[in-house]
Amino acid sequence: MLIGYKLFAEGYSPQEMVRQAERAEEVGFDFVEISDHYHPWLRSHGHSGFAWSILAAIAARTRRIGLATGVTCPFIRYHPAVIAQAAATTALLSDGRFVLGVGAGEQLNEHVVGKPWPSVGERHEMLRESLQIIRLLWRGGNRSFEGRHLRLVDAQVYDLPETPPEIAVAISGTSSARVAAELGDGVFATQPDPGPVRAYREAGGSGPCYAEVPLSWAADEETALESAHRMFRFGVTGWKVQAELPDVVNFEAATAFVRTEDMRSAFGYGPDPERHVAAVQEFADAGFDRLALVNAGPDPDGFFDFYAAELSGRLRAIAPAG
């Protein structure tokens, strides 16, 4: 079991993200993960720095901790050739500590370049072609590719690491699980649901399984719940909503009736370590073995201290029930 820390780039400045990554290394986290978004989820978040610049700064300021995107969409807003180059460079700058997390994207971030928003099935086809292009470029040399949705013409990534980064593919069902088993090295998810992990294993996938565990630490329960509601109420809308809404104002409307009480069942919260351990156990029971802790609490440094004192040893010892 590896334990990571999710850098909430929508809630903090780029400089603060780098500082938090340094603290995560200090208190013993195995990796940090950062979303690659253009917009925040809610207006109150107020930030959304460029993930690849933040990763480069973290690579320069840390020595041990792993780095990962959680996740980037390698088409529409980007071309997969750009992601192949960015990931290779990040792997070099971090001395091989980087994992490329990829997914089929959210309209919130991809619509900004003015292209139509494809259906789920089409996005999965585009994700497959993107991974084929990335793998092709990582083999070195001058490469071209002609797919149904994407093209590559006479491209070469000149600076390549000796060992390519691992690719973790975000999955939600059978279709994406097959893509992950064929072209990825692992999977990524946000719910403690064993179904996608099972589908990935049945499709022949044998790599690590990443997931984000929602927690909210504060010195009292009400403060923790209020902070979780303020920062992460968008999360209870479900992935189908999160992928399809086009703008921050839509998420404000979609979450207008989410109550603070609704966060109780979705988060490990408050000062009691047992509640946090129980939340992590759910994901371990579902088959995940790379767990990124998301802190929706108001005090990042308090959470780091809490992790070091109360959670680190216990979480590393967690195993699936039975």
Automatic annotation (TrEMBL):
GO molecular function: oxidoreductase activity, acting on paired donors, with incorporation or reduction of molecular oxygen
UniProt KW Methyltransferase keyword: no
Annotated CDD domains: Tetrahydromethanopterin_reductase (cd01097)
UniProt keyword list: Oxidoreductase
Sequence ranges assigned to domain Luciferase-like in this UniProt record: 13-290
The keyword Magnesium belongs to this UniProt entry's keyword annotation: no
Pfam families reported for this sequence: Bac_luciferase
Name this polypeptide is given: G6PDH family F420-dependent oxidoreductase
Lineage of producing organism: Bacteria, Bacillati, Actinomycetota, Actinomycetes, Streptosporangiales
